[in-house]
Prior knowledge:
Elements: E1 2-6, E2 27-28, E3 31-32, H1 33-43, E4 48-53, H2 57-64, E5 67-68, E6 71-77, H3 83-91, E7 99-104, E8 107-109, H4 113-122, E9 127-137, E10 142-145, E11 151-155, E12 160-173, H5 188-196, E13 203-206, E14 211-213, H6 217-225, H7 227-230
Parallel strand pairs: 1-4, 1-7, 4-6, 9-13
Antiparallel strand pairs: 2-3, 5-6, 7-12, 8-14, 9-12, 10-11
Helix pairs in contact: 3-5
Amino acid sequence: MEAIVLAGGLGTRLKSLGIDTPKPMLPVGFKPFLYFILSFLCQNSVNKIILSVGYRWEKIKDYFGDNYKNASIKYSIEDSPLGTGGAVKKALNFCENNDVWVINGDTFFEIDLMDMFHFHKKQNSFFTIAIKEMENFSRYGRVIVNNQNRIINFEEKKKFVNGYINGGVYLIDRNYFRGKSLPDQFSLEKDILEKVVDKEVLMAYLSNAYFIDIGVPQDYLKAQTDKTIFEKYE
């Protein structure tokens, strides 16, 4: 299996911690956060990883090289920021399989990848998003799903009592962008998903597995205390 990991984040909201490094390279314990994502992928039968990189990308390549455990690594380098959509579109040029994982490099969602893969194939889906139920949240928009697990709407960020969030793990058809008129720079969420949700079938895979997003200081610091999760991927 192949996976694209979006690892070009600047970590702007983490500057208050005095950190100046690609966000996925922030340490959790003595290892970069990205180390645990790649270990998780390798333990789930992914044998080719495309790292979509930009800001200080050389630091990532110096650490991981061209191979990691049982997976080969390719680097899709952004000369200027492409947005999440542009980054995925460019990285897909390195892919050969029909179905490709896309993983956010600043989130860790410990889902059962094979179970999601079987769900994706059973539904004949071109685009499947892993979602997680959450309570009392405002950092994320809410994903609205019908009783057939089809996504019918994305709601803007605000204070929610409960609902589903986008967990930052996608399984997509390699040719999904083909035939779409798109610029080089665009947002996967704003310019694609939110605009096609009432026209295309986007499927939701629900998981209550461990989830953390290190994009803000309090959750990055929380990751340091969740040792039992990350120790499994040492």
